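[Help] Beginner question about ligand-bound structures

Sorry if this is basic. My supervisor gave me a protein sequence and a SMILES string for glyceraldehyde-3-phosphate and asked me to "get the holo structure". I don't really know what that means in practice or what format the answer should be in. Inputs are pasted below exactly as I got them.
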Amino acid sequence: MTQPDPILNHPTNPATALDTGAFHAVNRPAAERRAASLVARRSIKGAHQAAWLLNAIACMDLTTLAGDDTEDRVRRLCAKARRPLADHIVAGLGLVDMPTTGAVCVYPTMVGAAVRALDGTGIPVASVATGFPAGLMPLDLRLAEIRYAVDQGAQEIDIVITRAHVLGGDWAALYDEIAAMRAACGTAHMKAILATGDLVTLSNVYAASMVAMQAGADFIKTSTGKEGVNATLPVGLTMCRAIRDHRAATGNIVGFKPAGGMKTAKDALNWQVLMAEELGRDWLRPGLFRLGASSMLADIERQLEHHVTGRYAASHRHALA
Ligand SMILES: O=C[C@H](O)COP(=O)(O)O
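Answer (accepted):
No worries, everyone starts somewhere. Holo just means with the ligand present. The predicted complex, written as structure tokens, is below.
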């Protein structure tokens, strides 16, 4: 079985001092125009499309974050992470090995079941933590939740920030909170969910991205999937620019994870186009790019089946996710 490009090969992002001088205003109409033109002028077809969709699977945090999650559901999701495509699609694509997803992402109490189900595969388990999705809990409890998830075997922790720190412009409080979370993660990689749908302006998204990276986040992530507006391309563009600017200023490399509301193969292609155009093709690997999605894999599998067989199977024939 192919091992996914291990995120652990990518060194953690070292924290730098809080620097609000790195912020700049973002013009929303300009960001919207640029995002729209990026995806409009790139059309990926045929074998290229199949390759990009396979890459989307390798970069996917296959997710279940529902109130009615059970260990049984998590085990079924893990089975899908291990075998995301039907055998005839894998054979038809000429692949020697079954691909696997980048990670499986679950709630903290489900980490143990996921770790057991993925034993021996090299697929990491990501856990949300810190009072996901709102984060409105005392900091010591949020840090304890990180430590619990790491203790259960999570190799990646998806934290949420206190939106009020952004909305009130309290950047030092935001920096301190994220730095404390980074420390609680230990050797686990940390993705900072900015919940961009709650942050009102793209300038706030840019500033929060900068603070998260300065405080040591290994990835910045758009959304929990629970906000009214989740991953959008203008927000993604703003965050990618922040990643680029942070690298130019510090030399440090941070990954990007759009998440929430992405359901189609077309979404998977559009987000990869954005990454390739804004950060370069080097970013199109699991160590630096994840797609957080609970219901995108089924359409990717459907499109790949069409590529192999020339026809679409009914979506009910494809398994969970
Ligand atoms: O972190 C991942 C997201 O929560 C998934 O959101 P989704 O259920 O809208 O795909």
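A couple of things worth pointing out: The pocket of glyceraldehyde-3-phosphate is lined by residues 63, 65, 105, 224-225, 259-261, 292-295 (CB under 6 Å). Confidence is low (pLDDT under 50) at residues 4-8. Feel free to follow up in the thread.
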